[in-house]
Write a structure and sequence with these properties.
Phage tail proteins - horseshoe like beta roll fold, Phage tail protein beta-alpha-beta fold, three-stranded mixed sheet, globular, single chain, 21 strands, Elongation Factor Tu (Ef-tu), domain 3, alpha+beta, 47% strand, 326 residues, 4 domains, 13-stranded mixed sheet
Length: 326
């Protein structure tokens, strides 16, 4: 696999490709973390045959594949030893600016996409596409990390629309909020190993919808699951003039049987968190539509492979920060 690993000096005055020094490299992400991570081990000879790269505070790493940037992020740490030639580097993409900045906001009847535009403008964060929900929400955030603000607002909208959203940064460092796909354009037809785990630890298979005064509106349940496991119920309060049916169905979807696979396969930079894939694994006999919850791409000894966590449910992000507006 041919890639470039560019090291740009503080201020952007010079850029050097250090791919020839890479011993191992790992590029990873997950649904639980907005920022993607890049970890690299370099072998830098001490005999003077190679000019040591300037690994300074303020430097930026860019991973390029087939001419396109797949990752851009500041160098966060560099570790060297006096007894060997290895150098360990760590970096997070610009998602760290959502995680590391805390904002004070009161959003009253605004769409999440409008709030995202406000945050990006206030903190100088460049944007790519921002998913439109068309749903107005309200929330107060007194000193809350920006990633939690956005996740909460989009989760509130998702409860009402049934759609799922993912917050991430493009390879060239721009904020991107996308609707998670409902169908797959990628296929995994060959694997090195598959581990299959099913779990009902967090099962809730019934939802009762009540008015603000407690009167029963209706019950929505997963009848087969109730028959197998008994009734485990969640209560939703329906606001006046609204129908909480979609919210109830989404709750059942997100709190039903979970099935996750850990899959090791040949590397493909398109296989990243949030994408949907069709798995056709003849060895394990497992096949179907899955969503990528976590991915780790590894380059070592001239080989490129990845390890994926696949979920057969497209789950709602349950981040809840801030407080309701009184």
């Amino acid at each position: 696999m041919k890639y470039e690993l560019l090291l740009t000096s503080p201020g952007g005055n010079s850029t050097r490709d250090i791919a020839q020094l890479v011993q191992t490299m790992s590029w990873s992400g997950s649904v639980d973390q907005v920022a993607r991570e890049l970890s690299v081990t370099l072998a830098v000879p001490r005999d003077g045959s190679v000019t040591p790269p300037p690994l300074e505070e303020g430097a930026v790493l860019t991973l390029r594949w087939e001419g396109a940037a797949r990752y851009t992020g500041p160098l966060l740490s560099a570790t060297t030893g006096s007894q060997d030639s290895l150098v360990d580097l760590s970096s997070l993409d610009r998602g760290r600016f959502l995680v590391g900045n805390e904002g004070w906001y009161k959003f009253t009847s605004v769409t999440p996409e409008s709030a995202a535009a406000t945050l990006a403008r206030d903190y100088g964060i460049p944007t790519a596409g921002i998913a439109k929900t068309g749903v107005s929400v309200g929330r107060k955030f007194p000193g809350v990390a920006l990633d939690k603000i956005l996740k909460t607002l989009y989760a509130l909208a998702g409860e009402r629309t049934g759609k799922r959203y993912l917050i991430r940064f493009t390879g060239d460092g721009r904020l991107e909020i996308v609707k998670r796909p409902t169908s797959a354009s990628l296929t995994i037809a060959s694997t090195m190993s598959v581990t299959n785990t099913w779990d009902i630890t967090n099962l809730q298979n019934s939802v009762v919808i009540r008015t603000e005064s407690g009167a029963l509106v209706r019950r929505v349940d997963d009848a087969p699951s109730v028959a197998l496991n008994g009734r485990l119920e969640h209560v939703i309060t329906q606001r006046d003039g609204e129908d909480a049916g979609a919210e109830g169905k989404a709750w059942l979807e997100d709190h039903g049987l979970t099935q996750k696979l850990t899959v090791e396969t040949l590397g493909d930079p398109r296989l990243i968190t949030g994408e949907a894939v069709i798995l056709r694994d003849t060895g394990s006999g497992v096949s179907g539509l899955f969503w990528i919850d976590a991915d780790t791409h590894t380059w070592k000894n001239g080989q490129y492979f990845c390890k994926l966590t696949l979920n057969f449910r497209n789950l709602l992000d349950e981040t809840s920060a801030g407080s309701e507006i009184k």
